[in-house]
Amino acid sequence: MSDHAFVDAPLPLVPRPAVAALVRLADGRYLLQLRDDIPGIWYPDHWGLFGGAIEAGETPEQALVREVREELGVEPLSHGYFMRLTFDFAFAGLETMPRDYFEVTLPTTDPSELVLGEGRAVAAHTPQAILQDLRVVPYDAFALFLHINNAKIKGDADHAHAR
Prior knowledge:
CATH superfamily: Nucleoside Triphosphate Pyrophosphohydrolase
Shape: globular
CATH class: Alpha Beta
CATH topology: Nucleoside Triphosphate Pyrophosphohydrolase
Mean pLDDT: 91
Helix content: 25-40%
CATH architecture: Alpha-Beta Complex
Strand content: 25-35%
Number of domains: 1
Low-confidence stretches: none
């Protein structure tokens, strides 16, 4: 794939409602997927969260469980809604498309025990690496930034006096 596959891909990109899994390990790192480097997908060769499009008839929660199973080979132990980003595609004659983010607990957090079903790699990364060093899908980077800074954004008592 060329160095410009992300920009030069000839295939159309089709926006769809989607879900993503925020998997934070006990040590504070997050599990990310290195996306395939192929044309026709959003952000090839970028690190991103596990997840994908919501299929017809699925709820976001059902899509999340299916995507985690397909991409990591495990059933989530639990998941809770975190946030939604909504993208307005009116410029292309399309509707708005949501991307729902869920906090997910897996039965294992050891990447070597996961069966990668999509993408090139799975790895755990520190918040600093995610926000400063890696090439991360921009909307996932924003959701991760909000998750990492959740307490500061809420104005928790421990952080309120630090401002």
